[in-house]
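Bench log. Compound arrived from synthesis this morning; before running ITC I wanted a structural hypothesis for how fructose -6-phosphate sits in the protein. Inputs:
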Amino acid sequence: VKGGFPTFMEKEIHDQPKAVADTLLGRTDGHGNLVLDELRIDEAILRSVDKIIVIACGTAAYAGHVAKYAIEHWCRIPVEVELAHEFRYRDPVVNEKTLVVAISQSGETMDTIMAIRHAREQGAKVLAVVNTHGSTIARESDAVLYTHAGPEVAVASTKAFLAQITACYLLGLYLSQLRGNKYVDEVAGYLEELGKLPAKIQQVIDGEENVKEVARSMKDATSVLFLGRHVGYPVALEGALKLKELAYIHAEGFAAGELKHGPIALIDEGQPVFVIVPTPRRPTLHAKVVSNIQEVRARGARTLVIAEEGDEAVTEFADVVFRVPQTPTLMMPLVTVVPLQIFALALASAKGLDVDQPRNLAKSVTVE
Ligand code: F6R
């Protein structure tokens, strides 16, 4: 069942190229158009939506956070991302023109289910991005866009996360295609780029030994920080979550721009800091993150940098560089998160921990 791997988590990390490919499968017409008839939601409703609220918990919420950047860019619709349990207990502004996108691997997360009910009571349409067929969330939503990651057994989410992000890209591109705006011409190009992602993810996985070696050498670390900007920010949050839940190490993700507003006080000699660097083909964004690496390095941090192949600007300030293939900015999370998953897995394994069943956690959280 573990496909020859020692743990489900390792197998599931290796399943990721297929999870993304399967989530893309059959959803285009081969001429650069998306076909999502399966949504069975009135197109007029999707055209009239004036706000999207993504609700989810944990890793699924980070997928939603990535989705915000993509959907706002492609569709020019405001997107809010909110933890389902927070959404439920305030008084959110929701009406018939709100599309609520609920993201869940299990489809059984009680916090998310309660938020869906709350949204529907107020007239919002709910579109679920779910991995589990026939689950409660799939049944209670107005429309479902399934991720095709296959069953995820390890408690810590990996392949479901990549499939969720992929499905959200499809949703964003579909809404752009449907509603038409100045970005509609980009849809075909982005679909083509998405099609290349499974091979790129595989390439990152093929380099796993390098990441594992670094992780093993850090098994006595007591705190690791993660910095990212733009879509690298939710990747930083996810990298920190993986390390907390698998290796029981204090880990925190920050928006890189937030450093000087407080967190930089944490940096002292030898503090490990991961930095997720955007593509140099976005020079302004890239330069900002490179200067963030310099800032922490100058204060003694040990910098572990995730950067694109060919990005030489980072080497001077990086103690370790993990390379990812060139990828359009918005799609970078699909490759940049992979070394972080492998890092958490390898560090936890080096500590002798059970990576499939971390302490105190359940695969699906069916209580509020
Ligand atoms: C983290 C993790 C959790 C889940 C969260 C939502 O690795 O697995 O944070 O992402 O509990 O679960 P689902 O997606 O089943 O609603």
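What the model suggests: Residues 215 and 347 are 5 Å apart (CA to CA). The mean pLDDT is 96.
ITC booked for Thursday regardless.
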